[in-house]
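Final report, Chapter 2: Outcomes

The project's central promise was a pipeline that accepts a single protein chain and returns its three-dimensional structure in a standardized token representation, suitable for archiving and comparison. That pipeline is now operational. To close this chapter, we reproduce one record exactly as it appears in the project archive, with the input sequence first and the structure output second.
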Amino acid sequence: MLQAGIIEHGERFELIGGDLVAMAAKGNQHEELKIALNAYWMKIRPPELMIAQETGLHLSRHDEPEPDFIVYPSTIRPRDVRGDTVLLVAEVADSSLKHDKSRSTRHASWRNRGLRQSSR
């Protein structure tokens, strides 16, 4: 798709409901908050939990979002985390909050794939 000019280099997408969905651009506030959250969570994280940033979360053949954070048991490899094994999915939204809220079906589809908790 890059070579065909359909997408540009550096564009970010998620697979949601079988569709490639463009991800919102990341701003400075977004990145600063993610860094601060990661530093805090890593300080308080018990050894039985892992925290990953911007990792593809395989929910189904048609759904593989890339949330800002996932929390999952340390006994599972990141590529093996699924909706029924992830403990928390967190999205950081500052300037993208309106965009993220308009995609509320995204979070509903995650729950339909076994995801127990998500926050934004």
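Archive annotation: The longest helix spans residues 28-44.
This record, like all others produced under the grant, will remain available to the consortium after the project formally closes.
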